[in-house]
Write a structure and sequence with these properties.
Length: 213
């Protein structure tokens, strides 16, 4: 059993990760900006005010944590970069810091040409800031020196949505995982399975991976 802090536990991904972790017997702290608005989280979850961009908050929550899961969203481009920078700079100062599992962007995955999906000319403008912010976060982790252990999980770049939990998925690294029809698809529910699997059995330390059916 691990002590897991989920930043952004009230969101679409974070709430499912929280539920999956609780179901599998882990102790979960939901770190959110408005604890009063998370009554739908499972019983037994400890809910606190927490901010991944605050060094004070990160340091305080790290005291009893084995793993930080970062599933934040809904902000400007700087949000994801600031979170990654704060986590890396704060945790490397601690004697026994928690691991970081960052739920990142699918648009940072590479096309067959070897360029990120976010650089495609038809990439939707409404998602560009978030995609660039997640790219900034990935670059921050990749350039981090010793003292922090991180994993960055990218969902599929297009077909990623709420749905059924199957408990099954396949993994890759920098290119989307595709099925026999050439599609890269995953539900939020099975993203949560992949996150908690990585908590329980780390396979991608200091690396990015992706998951799809």
């Amino acid at each position: 059993m691990s002590n897991i802090v989920v930043f952004g536990a009230g969101g679409t991904a974070g709430s499912r990760i929280t539920a999956e972790a609780v179901e599998r017997g882990h102790r979960v702290t939901a770190a959110v900006r408005r604890p009063e608005a998370t009554s739908y989280l499972p019983a037994g979850v400890r809910t606190v005010t927490g901010d991944a961009t605050s060094a004070h908050s990160v340091r305080e929550l790290a005291e009893d944590a084995d793993v930080f899961v970062v599933a934040i969203g809904g902000g400007e481009r700087e949000l994801w970069r600031n979170a990654a920078q704060t986590l890396v700079s704060t945790l490397r100062e601690l004697p026994d810091p928690p691991r970081i599992i960052h739920v990142g962007g699918g648009a940072t995955l590479l096309t067959p040409k070897g360029t990120p999906y976010l650089d495609e000319p038809d990439f939707p403008d409404e998602y560009r800031d978030a995609a660039l912010g997640q790219a900034d976060a990935l670059a921050c982790y990749q350039s981090a020196a010793d003292g922090v252990t991180w994993t960055y999980l990218s969902p599929p770049p297009l077909e990623f949505h709420p749905g059924e939990r199957t408990g099954h998925y396949r993994t890759g690294t920098d290119h989307p995982v595709r099925d026999a029809q050439g599609r890269s698809v995953l539900t939020y529910e099975d993203l949560a399975v992949a996150v908690v699997d990585e908590v329980e059995n780390p396979r991608f330390s200091n690396a990015r991976f992706t998951a799809a059916y």
